[in-house]
Amino acid sequence: MNSTAKGDRPHIAVFGRRNVGKSSLINKLTNQKLALVSSQPGTTTDPVYKAMELLPIGPVMMIDTAGIDDQGELGEMRIKKTKEIMRKTDLALLVISAVQGAGEFEADLIKEFKERDIPFIVVLNKIELLETERAEQRSVLKELDQFLKKFKLEFIKASADQEINIDLIREVIAEEMPEDCSRQTIMGDLINTGDTVVLVTPIDSAAPKGRLILPQVQTIRDILDHDAAALVTKKTKVKSEIDKLKNPPKIVVTDSQAFETVSKEVAEEILLTGFSVLFARYKGDLKTFVRGAKAMEKLKAGDKVLVAEACTHRRQQDDIGTVKIPNWIHSKISPEIEFDHVSGREFPDNLEDYTVILHCGSCMLNRKEVLSRLKEAETAGVPVINYGMGIAWLHGILDRALEPFPEALELWQQDQEKIVGVI
């Protein structure tokens, strides 16, 4: 469970006003003191993450958020952070206090959930207080009943303090979790039992010491899970390793930075693609990235490109996102194209300022967040392409990198014809 990557876990986030018992509830659900609990409103500031096992789902990521009714300048910043969490939320828990009731804040959250296609469960917390404050609660309960009927919401009566219906909430979470919150395989549908897959991994200054990067490790495991063999090599050895095989490999998967070199070493009859292309469909939507590729054809001097990287690793002198790709684009298209860079959880609101977005392979993001980013870009009218596909296009081999995916290849070739017609 602990070895499951954060980006491959369904993300369950808890939302609500301050002091409705969000942190207490998440502590009970996880059976741990994950979040700081206090009667003082606004105790939770930044989102708090906790990896846990939730049967029968398996490994999940629980997220505690700040109150949506926070106040002041810092409060506004916390609310913004809370809403950013919705990008990655596969399932939401909306916590309402039986004492405070529900109103505009909850209505706004429900609206956001629906706009973002986030399934949610309503938990009516602190029901133990209704027994001692029954007379004072009549008007609140009447308004709450009207609110729930207005939105046609079912809810679970619970008490985090008294541990009432905690198991029931876990059961409903398992029932309501979307089945498509992550793809089931990286490349299992491309291979058969007994096939050999050659994986080309760089061992250079940017490679982590003593280990492989996450996409490479996950791909190896996926190959083994589908009873195929993984042969791992460096780009300088790929041809000699393939020549040693009794039968040619089913497919070669390369690090995107080695696309140009490897494509010359691997025979045309052998399928070739990149880790980034595999993750374009594993984490997001391959066809969306293919549509974004045609925007590269239209880049010109004065355009602005956003480079978005999900991780916050220490950058090398020849960093792929901040140095290599910009240099290739400057060389191939124009030195007057501008670049902005964001990393980690950053994803700007002013997407319409950019001509195209270049996104990393997203191994550190869950699929929901990648799809949310793609949707925001689509709303802003900005095409998105990921690193690997962008590099393949820059080196003129995107057609070959898409050969393992016939529908995506057909879409790209159709787009190519349209571009030629326009030019």
Shape: elongated
Number of beta strands: 14
Mean pLDDT: 85
Q: Give the radius of gyration.
A: 25 Å
In percent terms, what proportion of residues is strand? Answer: 15-25%
Strand order of the largest sheet: 2-3-1-4-5-6
Terminal CA distance reads: 53 Å
Number of domains: 3
Series of secondary-structure elements, N-terminal to C-terminal = EHEEHEHEHEHEHEHEHEHHEHEEHEHHH
CATH homologous superfamily (4th level) name of the largest domain: P-loop containing nucleotide triphosphate hydrolases
pLDDT < 50 runs, ≥5 residues: 35-39, 419-423
**Do you know the CATH topology of the largest domain?**
Rossmann fold
Largest sheet: 6 strands, mixed
Helix/strand class? alpha/beta
Report on this model:
It holds the Pfam family HydF_tetramer. InterPro entries: FeFe-hyd_GTPase_HydF, GTP-bd, HydF_dimer, HydF_tetramer, P-loop_NTPase, Small_GTP-bd. This is [FeFe] hydrogenase H-cluster maturation GTPase HydF. It comes from Halanaerobium congolense. Keywords: GTP-binding, Nucleotide-binding. With 423 residues, this protein is of the alpha/beta class. The protein folds into three domains: 6-181, Rossmann fold (3-Layer(aba) Sandwich); 196-278, Rossmann fold (3-Layer(aba) Sandwich), CATH 3.40.50; 296-407, Rossmann fold, CATH 3.40.50. Helices cover 39% and strands 17% of the residues. The chain contains 15 helices and 14 strands. The chain has helices at residues 22-30, 72-85, 104-115, 134-150, 166-176, 214-225, 238-244, 259-265, 275-283, 286-297, 320-332, 367-379, 387-394, 398-401, 406-422, and strands at residues 11-16, 48-54, 58-64, 91-97, 120-125, 155-157, 196-200, 229-233, 251-254, 271-274, 304-309, 338-343, 356-359, 384-386. The strands form three sheets. Strands 2-3-1-4-5-6 form a six-stranded mixed sheet, with helices on both faces. A four-stranded parallel sheet has the order 8-7-9-10, with helices on both faces. It has a four-stranded parallel sheet with strand order 12-11-13-14, with helices on both faces. Strand 11, helix 11 and strand 12 form a beta-alpha-beta unit. Helix 10 (286-297) packs parallel to helix 15 and helix 11 runs parallel beside helix 13. The radius of gyration is 25 Å and the shape is elongated.
